[in-house]
Amino acid sequence: MRRRAGLVLLAFAVFFAALAPLLRWYAFPRLAKVPPNQYQEVVLEAKPAVLLDYSTLRAERVEKITIVQTLKGNVEESEKIERSAGRDVVVWDALSHVQGPDGAMVSQIPERYIFDAHTQAPVNATGEMVDGDPVRREGIEFKWPFLTEKRDYAYFDAQTRTSAPIHYRGTRTFRGLEVYYFEQTIPWTRVPIPRKMPIAGVTAEQIARTGLTRWYTSRRMFWVEPVTGAPVNGEEIHTEELRDAKKMGMPKDTVTAFDGHVKMREDYIADTVELVKSQRVLVLLLTSYLPWGFLGLGVGLLALALWLEARSRTSPAA
Length: 318
Fold this sequence. Notes:
- This protein is an alpha+beta fold.
- Helices cover 30% and strands 40% of the residues.
- The chain contains 4 helices and 13 strands.
- It has helices spanning 2-31, 75-85, 204-209, 266-314; strands at residues 39-53, 58-62, 65-73, 89-99, 105-116, 129-130, 133-134, 153-157, 162-174, 177-191, 213-225, 230-243, 254-264.
- Strands 1, 2, 3, 4, 5, 6, 7, 8, 9, 10, 11, 12 and 13 form a 13-stranded antiparallel β-sheet that branches.
- The protein is elongated and about 105 Å long.
- The chain starts with a helix and ends with a helix.
């Protein structure tokens, strides 16, 4: 009976020992993915900030600028692209809505971001755009891959429509979480004028024909929880200028359109941290807790099977 029990335990030991790497290296890459129907809203603020008053054509210091960023999963479009791409795809329809201290719209920039649900790598497909302009992304945007590494990544900048390295700057602690800190600096670059303007009856095409140009620079900072790849905090020191502005009747040839240190609002930071903490446990179950637990169980069962076999050999036959 001891020998039979030992064989059963040995079989279970082999099963759990084999299941451990299978769960980590086969199941996890297929099970861990961004849901296609995700909806997320984040509110950021710059307090204080400099903003162009289009009624006076002068830059003024204001108490607060608010930026509302929404990400909405487009399930119908993702299913269409999946049929041709042959893999799980997520389509995010994003909108960045900037409003002044009086609540009036300053600018609105829509995006369509298409990426692999498992790796977060961009999937270049019809419909990928920023503010109506077709783009072909390289690198990540909004979210890092699961199990983020301590290295630089290519990060897509929606203003310039190009990708540039975002640099890993070290490991830090943020609200009780171990996070990786990333930073990217965009030098002064000429960028398109937003299609939706705060001036009634004036279009971006009309402004562009005057010779007025829009320039932008930014220092972008993210605190990323590495297990989920989700940013738990983000900041940006953002400056925009209108150059050749005298062509539009402005008193100076270079006018600041926006300048401020943009930060996530505190209540959204708290909600994001709590959400990431819960999602982090689910990822760790597949990558750490269950694989190591099954491996330990397999070793324990193997030891017990060997012990029973040894006892059966030393005990007199019944």
